[in-house]
Amino acid sequence: MVPQLPFPKIDISVKGLRCKRGERTVLDGVDLQAPSGTFVAVRGPNGAGKSTFLMCVAGLLPFSGTVSIGSQGWDEDEHPINEQMIFITHLNAIKPELTVYENLSFWADLGGGARDRIRPALEAAGVSRLRDVPAGAMSKGQQRRCSLARLLLADKPIWLLDEPTSALDKSGDIWIAGLISAQVRRGGVVIAATHRPIEPEADIAMVTLDLEAR
After folding, report:
1. Looking at domain 19-63+157-214, what is its CATH homologous superfamily?
2. pLDDT, tens digit, for every residue of 36-90?
């Protein structure tokens, strides 16, 4: 296994974030401070803008206000900070006709990961016996585990997760909480939009961002 070295320091700062989708203002005046070693749980009812918030942080939607990611120790010319994050949406983003291994190979190559991490990632996700099975033949819970295994293919300090526990059972909930805890201990920042509570380990610094439907 690759040694889990601490990440260089990072800090995510969101101030006065406002975002419209069409004619509807989804977010207005949202603030967040998330330094290294923080887990942020973004909560709220459907329509509150949880997914929109993640997409703004990822730079995928236009917005007003500021989202800044400060870093210490990164060579940002060689490794731009926007390449130091992984965003896993509520969609699994797997091709059903490809095998589990082929799907993760694609993501490893695309995201700067390592193919020699695929096997341990699948073992950690509990789907290693399905590596040669077409992804479309798996259950929804297995597909979600396959998608989340992408987190283990490369060392990215910033994780943006949209409903990571969707379709998972109790053991899957525990697995995700453990992954988040390990990431935060390395000095990473995890921002997860979730309906279901995610319970990291007791020593983990956790911040809650509550959004309301507008």
Report:
1. P-loop containing nucleotide triphosphate hydrolases (3.40.50.300)
2. 999 999 999 999 999 999 999 999 999 999 999 988 877 777 767 778 899 999 9
What's the whole-model pTM score? 0.94
Q: Is 19 helix (H, G, I), strand (E, B) or coil?
A: strand
- Please report, rounded to a whole number, the percentage of residues in the chain having pLDDT higher than 90: 86
Residue 52 exposed, middle or buried by CB count within 10 Å (0-12, 13-18, 19+): buried
Query: How many CB atoms within 10 Å of residue 46?
Result: 8
Positions of E strands within 54-200: 64-72, 85-88, 158-162, 189-193
Q: What are the angstrom distances between the C-alpha of 137 and each of 84, 118, 123, 148, 213?
A: 32, 19, 18, 17, 36
All structural domains of the chain with their residue ranges: 19-63+157-214, 95-154
pLDDT at residue 142 tops 70: yes
Instruction: Tell me which DSSP letter residue 107 carries.
Output: H
